[in-house]
Each structure stands twice: as C-alpha cells, then as structure tokens.
Design brief:
The chain has helices at residues 3-14, 33-36, 43-50, 52-71, 74-84, 89-100, 107-118, 123-130, 145-170, 174-182, 187-212, 219-229, 231-234, 237-246, 251-278. With 288 residues, the protein is mainly α.
Length: 288
C-alpha cells in the first residue's frame, strides 16, 4: 500500500536532485543539455559569494522572515486560546471556519483585496479624503513593505495555523483545569499554568520548522508586488534567483543559489533544534 506513495516521493523529490549537477556546469539548456555542458567546478558558487547584490537580497529575506516570525507566529496561538474559551461548539466552529477561510484564497485575490482597501485609490484612502484628511498608499511604500506582506500572511494563513494548536488543546486533560480551579486559579492562571505548558512542545516544533524555512517566503506573493515597491525593498532570494538565473537563462547560477539555500535551511533547522533541546523540548527529533 505504501509503494505508490514511495514512488511519488522518489520521482518528484529525489530524482530531481540529480539536476543539481548543473550548479557545477556552464549549463546550456538549449543546445548542449546536462550531458554536453562543460563542468566549471565551483565557479557558480564563487560568483554567488562575490555578488554583493546576492548578500543584500539574503539580508532582506531574513529581515522579512524575522518580521513575520515576530508578528505572525504568535497570532495562531492567540486565536487558538480565544477559540478554546468559547463554550458553544457551534459558535466555535463558525468562528474557526470564518478565520481560516482566507487560506483557500490565491495570492492574486489576497493582494487585490489589500489593493482595494489600502491602495492610493482604496477605500481607506478615499474615506480619509472625503473627511478632509490626506490619503495614503501603503501598497507602494517601500519602508512599509515587510509589514504589508506580514499582514497579508496573517489574514490568509493565521486561521489555518490555528488547527494544529486546537488539536493540541483538545488533548489536554480537563482534570488539570478542574484541579487548578479548586486550588483557586482564575482563568488567566489556568491558561498560564495549564494551557500554555500543554502547547509548549507543539510551539517548539513549529518554531523549529519555521526557522528552517527562513528563506522560503511566498514567491508568488512577493513577485506580484515586486514592481510596486521596487526590487530594493521587495527582492527575496527566490525572486532574485528567478530574475537573475532562470529568466536570463543562467541556470547554473540559479542552481548554485538553490543549493546554498538548501544548505542554509538545514543549518537553521539543526541550530533551532539544538536550542529546543537546550530548553528541554524535543524539537524535530529527540536528543540521543
């Protein structure tokens, strides 16, 4: 029964790894192909390390990631805690459905909604002008871009992330709440001493995974808004690889940047998991 899943994993996840050989070639996709393109060793990696623009883009990617980590990551936890306090199962189900419904929207729709709300001709700017105030255009503000994409990610995906935390809360023994209430613990004390400790292993695991995907921001989301604010504020590693590598036909450079991104992500996962072990959590894998 597992053979079809293993075959899919092999074909779509492991066989494509063989294509990384183009990172060590002066790859010509049109005439020579993989077998005919000459090997150039680590020249493509040398070009990456000598490209100051690459390091600027890497720094910008990490800045956007840290902004989302600080502002986005706690939101699903807070929503899960609020939903957990709703006694009516029907009301809780309705609220949860409304909150995570935007997850199924495409980024094109999400960006369009924000454009209609916060753009220069958006509803908020028009309302301000009608009431004698100066309008604004958040969609073309380079300094606000990292907060803009973070708010879009919160609206789209925060509700979906609640599911994991609600599942963890469902496994909490209700006797612990009753015992805490008997001891005189109020609602906030029960949340602090019972609910949050129950969520701590899940929070640690998801945090490690999130740190490991620090360079995996939403390519489509950024690309759709790249021209509005300029590449200086919006360029991330994926869009830079697409622009300088794939769009210009320099596939060797793009493959080398992809390998660098993969190794960087692995190092981030191992480092974050080590921190989780130091805090007494299991993380992605247990400490031997």
């Amino acid at each position: 029964m597992t053979l079809p899943a293993m075959a899919l994993l092999l074909v779509f996840n492991y066989v494509p790894l063989l294509g990384n050989v183009v990172a060590f070639q002066d790859y010509d996709v049109y005439d020579l192909g993989i077998t005919g393109s000459p090997f150039v060793g680590f020249d493509n990696f040398t070009r990456i390390f000598q490209d100051y623009r690459f390091w600027e883009v890497l720094l910008n990617t990490l800045v956007i990631f840290l902004t989302q980590l600080i502002l986005f990551f706690p939101i699903p936890i807070a929503i899960a805690l609020l939903l957990n306090t709703i006694m009516s199962a029907r009301v809780r189900a309705w609220v949860q459905a409304i909150v995570y419904l935007p997850h199924f929207f495409s980024w094109v729709l999400v960006v369009t909604v924000f454009q209609q709300m916060f753009g220069g001709a958006g509803l908020v700017a028009q309302w301000l002008r009608e009431h004698g105030h100066e309008g604004f255009d958040l969609m073309t503000n380079p300094g606000f871009f990292k907060f803009l994409v973070t708010s879009q990610a919160i609206w789209k995906d925060a509700g979906w992330g609640v599911i994991v935390f609600l599942a963890a809360l469902a496994a909490v023994n209700t006797d612990l709440y009753e015992a805490a209430a008997v001891d005189g613990a109020g609602r906030w004390r029960r949340m602090w001493h019972v609910t949050l400790p129950a969520l701590r292993p899940v929070i640690a695991l998801l945090l490690v995974l999130r740190v490991g995907s620090a360079l995996n921001l939403d390519f489509e989301q950024i690309l759709l808004q790249r021209d509005q604010v300029g590449a200086g504020a919006s360029e991330i590693l994926d869009t830079y690889i697409w622009w300088t590598g794939i769009k210009t036909g320099d596939f060797g450079y793009a493959a080398a940047a992809g390998i660098f991104k993969g190794l960087f992500s692995v190092a981030m996962v191992l480092g974050a998991n080590k921190v989780a072990h130091m805090m007494g959590e299991q993380g992605v894998y247990s400490k031997k």
